[in-house]
Amino acid sequence: MLLFCLQIEMAGLTLVELLAVIAILGIILAIAIPSISNIVESSRKDVCAENRLMVSKNYRDYLAIEDKTSSTIIFKEFVQLRYDEVRCPNDGIYQLVGEEIDCSKHGNHDGGSGEVPIL
Ligand SMILES: [Zn+2]
Question: Nearest 5°: CA angle at 96, between 95 and 102?
Fold first, then answer.
């Protein structure tokens, strides 16, 4: 009886079946990993754009309330005082460029860095 059970268990998968399963899992992972990493990077760009938008609106309010004129020094002071914890997810540095807030990693557009997307 024990010998019969061992023979049934040993006949579970052949080597070809096991290699086929491993190959299919490899194909699925090869497709899924770049897609997931693109989703993560896109989410980080969106978070950065939203953070810059929030900092920009509050910076304008700060200038109006404090009756100050916009400059890079005033902006650095504002960010250090009020937005030290709001940062780019990719550790970019927010800077005032003209009237807009620029991220050193993502630029100042809606999450784009001026790169042409690959279709
Ligand atoms: Zn950024």
Answer: 60
